[in-house]
Amino acid sequence: MARETAAARAARAQEILAALARTYPQAHCELDYSTPLELLIATILSAQCTDKRVNIVTKELFRVCKSAADFVALPQEQLEEIVHTTGFFRAKAKNIKACCTALVERHGGEVPRTMDELTALAGVGRKTANVVLGNAFGLNVGVVVDTHVQRLTARLGLTRETTPEKIEQDMMRLVPCEQWAVFSHWLIWHGRRRCDARKPDCAQCEIATLCPRVGVKQK
């Protein structure tokens, strides 16, 4: 099989984007939040945890803590107890406390709107920063690369990279800037609803004709 040229991959990517947009017009972040701070905390908790579980936990957590100062004042043991079921609860509670302390001390309790300021906070990497910037503030600064995005970009032949940082750079070159945030939502929704890690529903897949994986299986 001839290796796909960069131009052909770019053209196929645009077809994939159009098909995903038609399939998931309501795609959005599935973490429950009402403020940038809530989204920041929920995203920190979502590491190695499902959005569904995080939403259960934050329903109680956000009743207890309304501001960054509230998280700082909450005893570590109480915070650990509330977030226990999200996994890695001690590390997550420690990061949340340190993150909110920095928000109070350096940002007046508000969530900053730049990548550099966000990634300087405890427990916040590019993925978390991109989630907050893209969803809370509507800023397309980068592409969220979670396990779904990593899996689907590989399956779809959109990248040969294997690390989130390099995958993000490839996607930022391939996807129009104004679609960076929603692109991640499209792939996440598709990954959860159709392209499962173990048993992808290729027969019903809306982008099967654009997927090299399906094409190989059909030959």
Describe the protein's architecture and organization.
With 219 residues, this protein is mainly alpha-helical. The protein has two domains: 6-28 and 143-213, Endonuclease Iii, domain 2; 36-136, Endonuclease III, domain 1. 60% of the residues lie in helices and 0% in strands. The chain has helices spanning 6-23, 36-45, 51-64, 68-73, 76-83, 89-107, 115-119, 126-136, 147-155, 164-174, 180-193, 212-218. Helix 2 (36-45) runs antiparallel to helix 8 (126-136). The longest helix has 19 residues, at 89-107. The chain is elongated and about 60 Å long. The termini are close together. The mean pLDDT is 95.
Summary tags:
219 residues; mainly alpha; Endonuclease Iii, domain 2; Endonuclease III, domain 1; 2 domains; elongated
User: How many distinct helices?
Assistant: 12
Can you tell me the number of structural domains?
2
In CATH, the topology of the largest domain is named: Endonuclease III, domain 1
Q: How does CATH name the architecture of the largest domain?
A: Orthogonal Bundle
Tally the beta strands: 0
Average pLDDT, rounded to a whole number, is: 95
Gross morphology: elongated
List unreliable stretches of 5+ residues.
Answer: none
Q: What portion of residues belong to β-strands? A: under 5%
- The radius of gyration computed from the alpha-carbon positions, rounded to a whole number of angstroms, is 19 Å
State the helicity in percent bands.
55-70%
Instruction: Say which CATH homologous superfamily of the largest domain is assigned.
Output: Hypothetical protein, domain 2
Largest sheet: none
**Which sequence of SSEs, written as H and E, runs from N to C?**
HHHHHHHHHHHH
CATH class of the largest domain: Mainly Alpha
Q: What is the structural class?
A: mainly alpha
Cα-to-Cα separation, first versus last residue: 11 Å
